[in-house]
């Protein structure tokens, strides 16, 4: 397993409210915080810290239900923090969490950060965006091309730390030799097409840094964070 991770504030935002983390055993997380006065940064880092703590207190292996529970625990922590500190009210974060045990990938997900699987020269989006634009897409009201530039493409319908009973998506799938897994915030996917992502994932070198640089070259209008796991790369 080879792991690459990178994050950048981008070309417009004053601070980086994203968080990227990897910790043993074979667990990976990206989060995109939201909220004024750096509250987004507080939310995304609180998510990372809480998930790490909950998992470390839970016997392995961790399935999708355990990962989802950790995200819900983080939801409670963020809500309590916002209640105790008025400056942080309204903060929240996305969460895309991946754990690999033997030859199985387990994931939990809230928001519009994404988990992709590259296999056999094709790129598959594993997670579903919890966003207003995704709902328009599903209803057929707009096309995929229109979604990329829709003025409300950053409006979330679900996030961690916003409501008490957050709904967490989760699942699992078997890995095959040569698979490549990508976790990323929308700072990448709003700037770089799936076709470009697939092209870069088939290259050599630090794949995360390559993806971040492509997002910056395209304008870098948001924080961008990327974590790539190359499975059985040898």
**What do the pLDDT scores average to?**
93
- Output the helix-strand order: EEEHHEEEEEHHEEHHHE
CATH class: Alpha Beta
Total beta strands: 11
| Share of helical residues | 25-40%
CATH structural fold name = Phosphatase 2c, domain 1
The secondary structure category is alpha+beta
Write the CATH homologous superfamily: PPM-type phosphatase domain
Major pleated sheet: 6 strands, antiparallel
Rg is: 17 Å
| Beta-strand percentage range | 25-35%
Describe this structure in words.
The protein has 234 residues and is of the alpha+beta class. The protein has a single domain (2-230), classed as PPM-type phosphatase domain (Phosphatase 2c, domain 1). Helices cover 32% and strands 28% of the residues. The protein has seven helices and eleven strands. The strands form two sheets. Strands 2, 3, 4, 5, 6 and 9 form a six-stranded antiparallel sheet that branches. β2 (18-23) and β3 form a beta hairpin. α1 crosses α2. The radius of gyration is 17 Å and the shape is globular.
């Amino acid at each position: 397993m080879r792991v690459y991770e990178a994050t950048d504030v981008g070309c417009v935002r004053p601070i980086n409210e994203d968080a990227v983390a990897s910790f043993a055993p074979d667990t990976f997380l990206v989060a995109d915080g939201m909220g004024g006065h750096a509250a987004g940064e507080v939310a995304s880092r609180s998510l990372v810290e809480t998930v790490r703590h909950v998992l470390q207190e839970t016997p392995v292996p961790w399935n999708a239900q355990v990962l989802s529970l950790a995200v819900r625990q983080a939801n409670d922590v963020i809500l309590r923090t916002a209640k105790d500190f008025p400056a942080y009210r309204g903060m929240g974060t996305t969460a895309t969490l991946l754990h690999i045990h033997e030859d199985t990938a387990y994931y939990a997900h809230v928001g519009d950060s994404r988990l992709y699987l590259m296999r056999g020269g094709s790129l598959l989006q594993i997670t579903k965006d919890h966003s207003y634009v995704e709902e328009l897409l599903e209803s057929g009201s707009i096309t995929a091309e229109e979604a990329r530039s829709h003025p409300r493409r950053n409006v979330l319908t679900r996030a961690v730390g916003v409501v008490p009973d957050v709904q967490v998506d989760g699942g699992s799938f078997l890995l095959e030799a040569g698979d490549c897994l990508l976790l990323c915030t929308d700072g990448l996917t709003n700037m770089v097409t799936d076709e470009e992502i697939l092209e870069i994932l088939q290259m050599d070198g630090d794949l995360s840094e390559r993806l971040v640089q492509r997002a910056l070259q395209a304008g870098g209008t948001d924080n961008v964070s990327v974590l790539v796991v190359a499975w059985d790369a040898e």
